[in-house]
Task: structure prediction
Amino acid sequence: MDPTGPLSTDGLVQLLDHEGRALTDDVYSPYVANLDADELRAMWRDMTLVRAWDLEATSLQRQGELGLWVQSLGQEAAQIGSGRALRTSDFVFPSYREHGVAHVRGVDLVEILRIFRGLQHGAWTPQDHGFHMYTLVIGAHSLHATGYAMAMKRDAAQEQEPGAVVAYFGDGATSQGDVNESLVFASVYNAPIVFFCQNNQYAISESVTRQTKVPLADRGKGVGMPTVRVDGNDVIACRAVTEWALEHARSGKGPVFIEALTYRVGAHTTSDDPTRYRAREEEQYWAERDPISRLEAYLESRGELGDEFRAQVAREAAELGERTRTTVKSWTRPELLEMFNDVYALPHAGLDAERAWFDRYQRSFDTQEAAQ
Result:
């Protein structure tokens, strides 16, 4: 790899190598020094469950039960590691692929599928989980996240526990103006926000090497914020780096830009064919760096991943898959008037008038049919 290019591994924070051997880092190792076997197993469990569920969702789309699906296959470590660094007081603004973060924040994964079934814009209440609804417009949510973080800074004196915002996006989003405007505002206003870029190396079919000549983390340097590049397939390193970044943001020191170098194993969406633009050798290289296998090898080397625990997680995955299939196939077409629900937080006269008009319009067809 080019030592200075966008896929350079120079300076990459890594605490587990690709074969699961432990490494140390003077800055970030202390942030995970207290992780015990239970917490490590919990991260392996989270990644395993999310992957199994992700594959189930793909199958449902192929069966015609979902209109589209966006896999997070291969990116589990970046999401579970960073997600487990969050506190209750923190708030997440995801894009559309952060299934692992949603899981860690307590969002029912099955409810996410309502979006891809075309039933809802979002199937959970953000305040309940500190996790905003998925954003399908690439990069747009970075502005929302920055504004929210600016408000959190204003309200910080009234809060018992300081919080921060994490905005997740991919490498392709860094080419959007919204993301760059967000970086400027966050830096200038010293907002408590962590920009977490999952560089999975492809913006649909466009390689990151055609989006930038330097590491994406340098975008943060350009506006004066600290930046970190981390091995996005190393769940322990992702947790450590995010712990540090959130502590930095919560303490009033301002925003941080994290670039997690990972790989999108699956297609961009189920409407994409990655074999048209990716080489088999490249895919094999990253298969050898699988995030779940890496943590599994580490736990096995320490004798901390027994057969009983594996069997328990396998049962949980099977139960989640069965619940997902049963629930999705039970969903029926909603009443059209439901499209007016949850548009505004408070009653809105204009929306009420539109709802009433549409209701009359629908019922007018019943009247015409009765007359015939």
Observations:
- The chain has two domains: 29-334, 343-371.
- The first helix runs from residue 37 to 62.
- The beta strands are 91-93, 165-170, 193-199, 202-203, 206-207, 227-231, 256-261.
- The chain has a mean pLDDT of 94.
